[in-house]
Design goal:
The complex is a heterodimer of chains A (about 250) and B (about 350).
Chain A lengths: L22 H15 L5 E5 L14 E4 L5 H11 L4 E7 H7 L1 H9 L5 E6 L2 E2 L5 E2 L18 H4 L5 H5 L5 E8 L3 H19 L4 E7 L3 H4 L3 H15 L3 E5 L6
Parallel strand pairs in A: 1-2, 1-3, 3-4, 4-8, 7-8
Antiparallel strand pairs in A: 5-6, 7-9
Chain B lengths: L3 E5 H11 L4 E4 L6 H10 L6 E4 L3 H13 L4 E5 L1 H16 L4 E7 L15 H5 L10 E3 L4 H18 L2 E7 H5 L1 E5 L25 E2 L6 H22 L2 E4 L6 E4 L3 H15 L4 E6 L1 E3 L3 H7 L5 E6 L5 H8 L6 E5 L8 H16 L1
Helix pairs in contact in B: 1-2, 1-6, 3-4, 9-12, 10-11
Classes of the chains: A alpha/beta (about 250), B alpha/beta (about 350).
């Protein structure tokens, strides 16, 4: 009896992510959501620039690779071309909250019926660990070698909080994948974000707090602990907006 | 036969795109091309199409990429400063081998420049529309009727060769009104097995991508793409020749500059000067053979441009600098007058006698 299988929507290509990186978990959650909703054949994914640039090799669905920050605009085009398709983007923090802030904000404001998976690991991973828009105050990176100085390098951007002010956004939730409990909760949120699109409920964005042991200079278990101790207090988990929340 | 209507060049482009089957337009306001967007905003909702005013030129071209990746016809339009912003997307369109139509109704530059007509984006359109090795098919209309015809042709060439077609029109072409006959072209079906239509569980996934981390792979895609470009150069270069058969002097000009030049040529012919016009209709591929052919009998060439002299390089290269080429130019939104062109023709004629 098989008790644990690879989701159908993941290819057999070996992931290129560093040991201990939680991108793999998030890929799996996305694939599980696609499987469970039975939408693999009509889903089109948009990969971005950063560590997840090669996501197009890992999902079995049709994929397009977008320029840095432009995934929500490309997704808008794909969705407008055929609204019956399920369109998602998979973006990192540099992509979504720095170079692509404009595209993120406006796709939310338009209420585009798309799903955005926003992976926030507080650093630019692919280029070797530079300061991200989401790097914490005091965080040491290659381009903030003395720690992020908010006086000269500004403050992190809290995307869910910011986007929650937009009437166009439908569902915004911040989750993490640093513990079994949090992974299960992240799965629920990601599934919901795809389900919303299937039901035509508009713009959904799930911010997933993720790890980067390599560029944080930590062992994988220390990185998971750093998420709990440093990141989650700065980026509180929870629902920031839900137009279709069930009344309890 | 469709009836003749009076239209602005920008509106003719918009209606022609719709007749060519384009149902997805993404734009951003900028003078002097905004009528394209305004026309699309009116028409698209009535025919089940998409008009979307994007948050930026960058977003607009990336929305075009999104639609193009699904295999449908999409377009955007802008003017010079906006096209600079679109250059990132133009490079990705080329790298992904996606067909699309982009319209540039040029204004003077550099920088914010002005809002009057210009042809100073010639280099950008034919040589440097983004990073990396690539070309676009660049079409240069010289009348409102041609704005429509080349828009339709641009979509076909884009689909045929999986390239971006650019309509490079000076602001005059966009703003002026002329009678035009608009007829839907015979639809041609282009197979797009690469398009993202959803696997439907029946085929392996399609990937639209421009990333190749293995240099051998990236080199292969570049060589293959340039092989295709060679076919375009062989088959698609187009020019109008006017009174060139016996010409000692040949004026080369496109867009509004060609129309001004025609008047000057007729006036020069009255004076007994044997002068003709070559009007490139495709700027890339440049009609090299037509220029080289004329150089077999013509002794002098004159390039007339609304720029500091950009096409003049292609004129010289087309005939390996076999004949002297002089430049008649205005810049910054100014247009050369027929008298200025005539004076240059007469100077060239004087040079022949000397």
């Amino acid at each position: 009896m098989i008790v644990f299988e690879k989701p159908k929507s993941l290819t057999d290509a070996p992931l290129h992510y560093c040991p201990g990186c939680t991108h793999g978990i998030i890929h799996r959650l996305v694939a599980e959501a696609i499987d469970e909703l039975g939408i693999e054949g009509r889903t089109i994914g948009v990969a971005s620039v950063g560590c997840s640039v090669m996501a197009y090799n890992y999902f079995t669905v049709d994929m397009v690779q977008a320029a840095h920050g432009r995934a929500p605009a490309v997704a808008t085009g794909v969705k407008r071309s055929d609204p019956s398709k399920i369109v998602f983007t998979y973006q990192g923090d540099g992509d979504l909250a720095s170079i692509g802030t404009c595209e993120t904000v406006h796709s939310a404001a338009r209420g585009e019926n798309i799903t955005i998976i926003f992976v926030n690991n507080a650093i630019y991973g692919m280029t070797g660990g530079q300061m991200a828009p989401t790097s914490l105050p005091g965080q040491v990176t290659q381009t903030s070698p003395y720690g992020r100085d908010v006086a000269t390098q500004g403050y992190p951007i809290k995307m869910c909080e910011m986007l929650s002010q937009l009437d166009g956004a439908s569902y915004l939730e911040r989750v993490a994948v640093n513990s079994v409990k949090n992974v299960k909760n992240a799965k629920r949120a990601i599934l919901r974000a795809f389900k919303n699109q299937v039901e035509g409920k508009g713009f959904s964005l799930i911010e997933v707090i993720s790890t980067c042991p390599t560029n944080w200079g930590m062992t994988p278990d220390k990185a998971l602990a750093w998420v709990e101790e440093k990141m989650i207090p700065y980026y509180p988990l929870g629902v920031y907006k839900d137009k279709y929340a069930e009344v309890k | 036969m469709a009836e003749k209507v009076l239209m602005k060049g920008n509106e003719a482009i918009a209606e022609a795109a719709i007749l060519a089957g384009c149902r997805h337009y993404f734009g951003y306001p900028i003078t002097p091309q905004t009528e394209v967007a305004a026309y699309m905003a009116k028409r698209m909702p009535k025919i089940g199409g998409t008009f979307l005013q994007a948050e930026s030129e960058l977003a607009a071209i990336n929305m075009v990429i999104g639609v193009a990746s699904t295999g449908k016809r999409a377009m955007t339009s802008s003017s010079s400063p906006g096209i600079s912003l679109k250059c990132e997307g133009l490079s990705y369109l080329a790298g992904c081998d996606l067909p699309a139509l982009v319209v540039n109704v040029e204004r003077g530059g550099p920088g914010l420049g002005g809002i009057q007509p210009s042809q100073s984006d010639y280099f950008q359109a034919t040589r440097g529309s983004g990073h990396g090795d690539f070309h676009m098919i660049v079409l240069a209309p010289a009348s409102v009727q041609e704005m429509a015809a080349l828009t339709m042709k641009g979509f076909d060439l884009a689909d045929k060769y999986r390239m971006t077609s650019m309509i490079l029109a000076d602001g005059t072409m966009g703003q002026m009104m002329e009678p035009v006959v608009l007829e839907a072209p015979e639809p041609v079906v282009y197979e797009k097995p690469w398009a993202l239509t959803g696997t439907d569980g029946k085929r392996p996934h399609n990937i639209v991508n421009s990333l190749y981390l293995v240099p051998e792979d990236l080199e292969r895609t570049n060589f293959a793409r340039y092989e295709r470009y060679r076919t375009v150069e062989e088959n698609e270069a187009a020019a109008e020749s006017f009174m060139t058969e016996d010409a000692d002097i040949v004026v080369v000009a496109f867009g509004i500059a060609a129309r001004v030049s025609k008047n000057a040529i007729l006036a020069a012919r009255e004076k007994g000067i044997r002068v003709g016009l070559i009007r490139p209709i495709t700027l890339w591929p440049f009609p090299k053979a037509v220029i080289a052919g004329a150089a077999s009998h013509a002794k002098r060439f004159i390039s007339v441009e609304l720029s500091m002299g950009q096409m003049i390089e292609d004129v010289r290269l087309a005939m390996d600098c076999a004949r002297p080429v002089t430049l008649v130019n205005r810049a910054g939104g100014m247009i050369p007058s027929p008298d200025e062109v005539l004076a240059a023709i007469e100077t060239a004629q004087g040079g022949l006698k000397a």
